[in-house]
Amino acid sequence: MKYKSIFDIIGPVMVGPSSSHTAGAVRLGHLARKIFGREPKRVGITFYGSFAETYKGHGTDVAVISGLLDMSPDNPDIPDGIDIARSHGIDMTIGTSDDAVDFPNTVRLSLEDDEGKLDFTGISIGGGMVEATEINGFEVKIDDENPALLIEYIDKAGIIARITARLAVENINISTMTVSRRSRGADALMVISTDQKVPDETVESMMKVPGIAMVTPME
To answer: Residue 133 CA to chain centroid, in angstroms?
Structure first.
């Protein structure tokens, strides 16, 4: 991820001692919630690398939970995040792993409710900046700043062209796009970042494309 301004290097306005381990952790929780689409009822958190070594002292667990509660990094209620989650009836499991990871500040989240489940892996890069790197086993690259579409579909010819054509008709510019599949002709995930919000009608029209299983807009 590229830094966009000097403020990204200085760091965010936040509650907590560390931009990576606290503000970044809030944003990772918030990003996972946006992808899940709602507040989860069951949460599993596993910290890796530097997160695993220091999460208690930096309040990284509290920060992730606060993000899942839809808080921003400057929310004064962050120190009470776990207590608030318990009051919402959220069941939480927090642990660490010494498995090797590509980036030191890595967290894996399992979010569940009666409607579905999300497996999420994300990293805190520094200065409060974050990325999702894996969703339900698919490699991705998603930040918490730009509008995006997560499109689950069956891998077959023509689907990507039909989706991008719908965006072109609405004059919506694509800034980045990644595609990941389990195998040829199997489940696949398309992540499209755009320069502006995609209208609800366009999202609905994409859902009608044969082979599309789900379209999740992220604002």
So the answer is: 8
Fold type of domain 148-218:
Alpha-Beta Plaits (3.30.70)
**Distance of alpha carbon 94 from alpha carbon 44, whole angstroms:** 6
* Structural domain spans, the chain: 6-142, 148-218
DSSP letters spanning the chain: ----SHHHHH----SSS-IIIIIHHHHHHHHHHHHHTS--SEEEEEEEHHHHHHHHHHTHHHHHHHHHTT--TT-TTGGGHHHHHHHTT-EEEEEE-----SSSEEEEEEEEETTEEEEEEEEEEETTEEEEEEETTEEEEE-SSS-EEEEEEE--TTHHHHHHHHHHHTTPPEEEEEEEESSTTSEEEEEEEESSPPPHHHHHHHHTSTTEEEEEEE-
Q: Which CATH architecture has domain 6-142?
A: 2-Layer Sandwich (3.30)
- One-letter amino acid at 93 equals T
Instruction: Specify the pTM.
Output: 0.84
Return the closest-CA partner of residue 29 out of 12, 17, 47: 47
Rounded to whole angstroms, the Cα distance separating 127 from 21 reads: 10
Both structure tokens of 200: 């609800």
Please classify residue 102 by burial: count the beta carbons closer than 10 Å to its beta carbon, then call 0-12 exposed, 13-18 middle and 19+ buried.
Answer: exposed
Per-residue pLDDT tens for 94-140? 999 999 999 989 999 999 999 999 999 999 998 888 999 999 999 99
Q: What is the pLDDT of residues 10-34, one digit of tens each?
A: 344 444 445 566 899 999 999 999 9
